[in-house]
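Chapter summary example.
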Amino acid sequence: MLLRTLRYGRPDTLAEAIRMLEESPSARPLAGGQSLINVLKHRAAEVGAVIDVSRLEELRAIEVDGSGGLTIGAACTYEQIGASDAVLAAHPKVAEVAAGLVDQQVRCRGTIGGNACFNDAGSNFPPLLVALDATMRVAGPSGEREVAAEDFFLDTYSVALGPGELLRSIVLAPAAGTTIGYSSLQPSEDSWALARAVARVRCNGVIADSRVVIGCVSGAQPRAAAVEQALRGADPSPEAIAAAAELGDRDLEPPSDVHAGAGYRRKMARVMVRRALTEATDQARRTNG
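The structure predicted for these 289 residues follows.
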């Protein structure tokens, strides 16, 4: 389907982009366009203008600070992230996920900020960012503010951005002492996942701390609080992990659609939690000897 007539703007600076968004409440930022263009073609949203931020240098940098913290610009492409030595060194799972997304064409256009802000329940990065306790830096007419990833993802296709605001960058604290597991159930290599789980653990003989996030069930990217509680102080054994993973669907209300029923998604959520935790604890065991 062809696009409706709409206005197109290409600002030269971030400040100009914010001004354009503020002046047109129906405008949307355009970065890679992998999701937004399809939304426009299907007439799924009323958008009066697109503001092309894909070439703004303020949104395309990847930086590591003195403590090992990582900042990724919102307009960085999956290809750029996956090929970045800085990302690979600081947060290898982020680089791995980016490098494995869909196909080369999408990786060269799609952006981490677009994936996060579109916030489909099946989007790859939101549950990972919540598990990593990322900070989302938002720029807008009143200046910049920071939002915890856990508070940024509100619901499916809904994030904590106000009028005239856009996501500027994503900040990740140093990963020292933690390990990450990421598991998805996909019918085929390039299809949307039916269930996903991301687990971050900190082990010092026992599981001292964990974050477990369930994907593909809600745009809110819910944490599996019952699993986290069951793991606190537990031995990172297969038996303990399997027992905790059985709590992975507690309080979940997954959707039923043409791809899978709610009951199947609940069962697969438990399986993905177990696999993600197994990956994370196996890595911790290897790291700690």
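To summarize the output: The longest strand covers residues 195-203.
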